[in-house]
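INFO worker-7 received task bundle
INFO bundle size: 2
INFO processing item 0
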Amino acid sequence: MTLHARPTAGEPTPWAFPAPDRGGLPNGMTVLRCHRPGQKVIAVEINLPAPLAAEPAGQEGVATIMARAFSEGTDRHTAEEFAAELERCGATLDSHADHPGVRVSLEVPASRLTQALQLTADALRAPAFPDNEIERLVRNRLDEIPHELANPGRRAAMALYDTLFPATSRLARPRQGTAESVQRVDAKAVRAFYEAHVRPAGATAVVVGDLTGIDLDAVLDETLGTWTGTAAAAPLWEPVTTDDAARVVIVDRPGAVQTQLLIARTGADRHDPVWAAQRVGVYCLGGTITSRLDRVLREEKGYTYGIRAFAQVLNSRADGTGLAMLGIRGSVATDVTGPALADLWQVLRTLAAEGLTDEERDAAVQFLVGVAPLSFETAAAVAGTLADLVEEELPDDYQARLYARMAETGTVEASAAVVNAFPLDRLVTVLVGDAAQIAEPVRALGIGEVTVIGG
């Protein structure tokens, strides 16, 4: 029998997060372009500086309705015609509103870029916002809210934000509004929000894909470049104070067989030099099924199917006033809620006393840095990350430098970062579960004053 020789690996190809070329349009829109040979599906991300904090009081959710309504007709097409034209291009167009602003995302084959960008430009330049479509979107949003309230994870997040942030802060209220505020949204309110905050000046378009044979300057000039308007006033930014003194909030769900856990506090955003080391440390704590939390709570104790630690940017500011959420989330059986929390706290105490091991640090860095080329294989992934950098007021080369910085992070540095991220006396714990069964065991742990609220 003749066997083929075993193939051997070649030399690894050097990789770095792609650097974009930066330019602009006469209407004041900034353009970032990134040529990615072979990526025949082009991704476009457009950042609109219309933050949730700009929503009128009592109409929270109007930015979400506006974002959803961009594809519901323009001055050239009805909603049905607009959808049909997108389909002819083989394109998808999505938009959503978040705290930093509104994001519009387009993916389209390179051969149909001009047509799809023209539709996108029309949606931004002259959205119809027809009364009947706005009414339908409001009804759809109202239908979603009961499902969100019934979801333990979403309900825990609502309770956490309401607890951490002052009532005057937009961060304290659901991103997409409450039933009471969404009911007050109509076509007039959507048009008013659009006219006050959506302009080409201050917006940014990120274009990523194989641009071979495409005169992108000409395409942009005849599409997004036709959108005109005076500059909107810069959104006011007010630094937010948070109260993360240790305490426990139980959202009562009588009869629940599981308890949803969400343990969190606020910390610095990605402008802080500690972010790279913190990301490594947080991954070691709860980034995967082999991390410390899972090893104890899942493998050793059998309390959970999985528990994760995370760091999520809320608002990022170059002046250092931005915020990130540092947290731990998962679910456990109701009858082991107390023991599970006790063991979780013990994991954090042991981490503070002993730090991470070199093996944990090496595995984390190998994954976080090693998986990056796969994470950014698609044009959409690159475009989304570049748009995030713009939104967070970070330099274009931040992502490339972040991976280099993580590769240099040592065990001691990662240990200090994750310990500082989760100080035991600054953690707010939200539990969604059966208060009658879990309240007393949790009080006995002494991890903070316990408050029970309705589900």
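INFO item 0 finished
INFO processing item 1
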Amino acid sequence: MTVGTHKLTLPAEMLRRGFWLYAWRVVGPAGEELLYVGRTGDNSSPNASPAYIRMGQHLGSLDTQNALRKHLAKRDIFPEQCRHFELVCHGPIYPEIEKPANFSREDRLLRKELMEKHIPLRNIVGAMEKQLANDLAAADYTVLNTVPWPHDVDPELWKPIRAAFAEHFPKLRG
């Protein structure tokens, strides 16, 4: 192990809550490029966290949150052995559903009402997550995860999102 000084710059925009779409680019120990595609916008609650929160969770130790770590482990890769991590995130595509000041998780009626507003946005961004993973794999990137989302993306909504990611993943331009 070597000791070093490192710098991480975080754009303040990444602190905004909402529905984000993101792709991790990982350069593994042997120099291989691996991608992981994800989104924010919970399935079980009306929450849509900022991209930076998911960033830390993916490499953390909580089994319910560290999907990137798990996918690397399936390839016998430990994150600490990797050469580089880059998170490309786009959003918030939609803001998080606003909760009243008196919001309580125990208020089932209010939670149900918030979920009814949250679910359509979550489904749109979930479809974009699936499309991004599929498009990256079709462009010959190594994508660690598959996204089994039941909904398909609206082509008109997808076009500018794909263009935004193509700036960082040039093989998507074709």
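INFO item 1 finished
INFO post-check item 1: The chain is about 35% helix and 15% strand.
INFO post-check item 1: The CA atoms of residues 24 and 87 lie 5 Å apart.
INFO worker-7 idle
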